[in-house]
Amino acid sequence: MQGTFHWLRINIFCYATENEELIHDSMLELLGTDEFECDIADSEHGNRILIFSSELSKQRDIIPVFVKMGKEIADELKDRLEDRIDEDCVFYLRIDKQELVQGRYRIAHHGDVLSLTGKIVSHPAKKGVAVTKMAEFLNSLEFPEEPQPL
To answer: Which of 4, 13, 46, 96 could form a disulfide with 137 if both were Cys (CB 3.0 to 4.6 A apart)?
Structure first.
């Protein structure tokens, strides 16, 4: 079976005023591995910026990322897929970084984020086909059962 994505890129910036360990651990938690890159850049004011990044190309590595973000995110994405996939069949998602470091996943509409960008396998390469493929992917995800109240 062919996967949903050719690749999925995940990036998060850690600014000089932020807790590097907290950002690192959040990336580790989402990916389930410490196999991601950390590049160093300088801001326009000379402060150090760390850029944690990973590019996943195997479905077995990509699925757990979406499962980890949870059913609520998947359901929210299903309702807005047309807005999250461009004409080149690229999917975009931003997760609020402040929520992320607290162990919660929330879709963000601002710039302080963990970003996910993925090229969807789509034949023919048309937005409508990519939207359908992504919807099928989200519908196929199996989320752990929520504990029932006693």
So the answer is: 4
